[in-house]
Amino acid sequence: MTEAEKLDAGLEYDFWDAEVDGRKHHALEGCQKLNAIPMQHAEEREAVIRELFSAVGANPVVLPVFNCDSGRNIRVGENFLANYNVTILDIAPVTIGDYVMIGPNTLITTVNHPLSPMGRRKHLGIAKPVRIGNDVWIGGNVTILPGVTIGNNVVIAAGAVVTKGIPDNCIVGGVPAKVIREIENDIPE
Description:
This protein has helices at residues 3-8, 18-22, 24-36, 42-52, 117-121, and strands spanning 13-14, 55-56, 61-62, 67-68, 74-76, 81-82, 87-89, 94-96, 101-102, 107-109, 111-112, 124-127, 130-132, 137-138, 143-144, 149-150, 154-156, 161-162, 170-173, 178-182. A seven-stranded mixed sheet has the order 3-6-9-14-17-19-20. Strands 2-5-8-13-16 form a five-stranded parallel sheet, covered by helices on one side. It has a five-stranded parallel sheet with strand order 4-7-10-15-18. The termini are far apart. It has a single domain (3-181), classed as Hexapeptide repeat proteins (UDP N-Acetylglucosamine Acyltransferase, domain 1). Helix 3 (24-36) runs antiparallel to helix 4 (42-52). By secondary structure, it is α/β, with parallel strands linked by helices. It contains five helices and 20 strands.
């Protein structure tokens, strides 16, 4: 298997491989373009978001400075908001539902590295997708780690580090993030 095929299969891969590294060019160009457009030019910004991400619902807002690894692995629903300084390391898919707000300085990452120093010297990475449901509010300075699934109607407190799946209808916080309490979902079905 090539290193890119290993990455796509969810296996360890060499992140210095030319084909794997080449996937970042789309993101580098798209992020630079997006971050250079003034906020007052909302239509132009939306067009670039639609070029950068693989799927975008109605009314996307991504504030500067935004960074990602691929862009092509990001899917967002309707009324998506990424506040200032959000980074999505989407070497694997990141799927985000409708009505999701991401606070400033948040990191969503799909890539991890071995605990072994020899594995890190070999430039090994392993990627796992991240899924975020509908009606999620992610506070500022949150980190969401690879392989995490976040349910619907979830509030993640500022500064939390989300290391495992989060059920529907709750508030989570802390390091590592834990359920603080359940909340009502008042959206009619």
